[in-house]
Automatic annotation (TrEMBL):
<keyword id="KW-0472">Membrane</keyword>
<dbReference type="Pfam" id="PF02325">
    <property type="entry name" value="CCB3_YggT"/>
</dbReference>
<dbReference type="GO" id="GO:0016020">
    <property type="term" value="C:membrane"/>
</dbReference>
<comment type="similarity">
    <text>Belongs to the YggT family.</text>
</comment>
<protein>
    <submittedName>
        <fullName>YggT family protein</fullName>
    </submittedName>
</protein>
<feature type="transmembrane region" description="Helical">
    <location>
        <begin position="6"/>
        <end position="28"/>
    </location>
</feature>
<keyword id="KW-1133">Transmembrane helix</keyword>
<keyword id="KW-0812">Transmembrane</keyword>
<dbReference type="InterPro" id="IPR003425">
    <property type="entry name" value="CCB3/YggT"/>
</dbReference>
Length: 97
């Protein structure tokens, strides 16, 4: 296995995990009574909150709905496709480099 393959595997797992955490965060936003400082919900809140805080300063809520987790799902999905998709940068490097 080349270093590009290992890097792609690790990066794919990390990006996939972040997408999954943000999707869980979106679902949790439907239940405002959930305390994000208690287990198991803090396992979702702690890794995602550092991304959400600065994004909330840039993207205002629409109709009272915080859309920043949706924005991050889009960003991480785009990154995953650009780097690891069928014609992604790391995919092409592992084939031809």
């Amino acid at each position: 296995m080349t270093s590009a393959n290992i890097t792609g595997l690790i990066l794919g797992l990390v990006l996939g995990l972040m997408i999954l955490l943000f999707i869980f965060r979106i679902v949790l936003s439907w239940y405002p009574q959930v305390d994000l400082n208690r287990l198991p919900f803090n396992l979702i809140a702690w890794p995602t909150e550092p991304f959400l805080i600065p994004m909330r300063k840039l993207v205002q809520p629409i109709g009272g709905v915080d859309i920043t987790p949706i924005v991050w799902v889009g960003i991480f999905s785009l990154l995953r496709e650009i780097l690891l998709g069928q014609q992604g940068l790391l995919t092409m490097m592992s084939r031809y480099g």
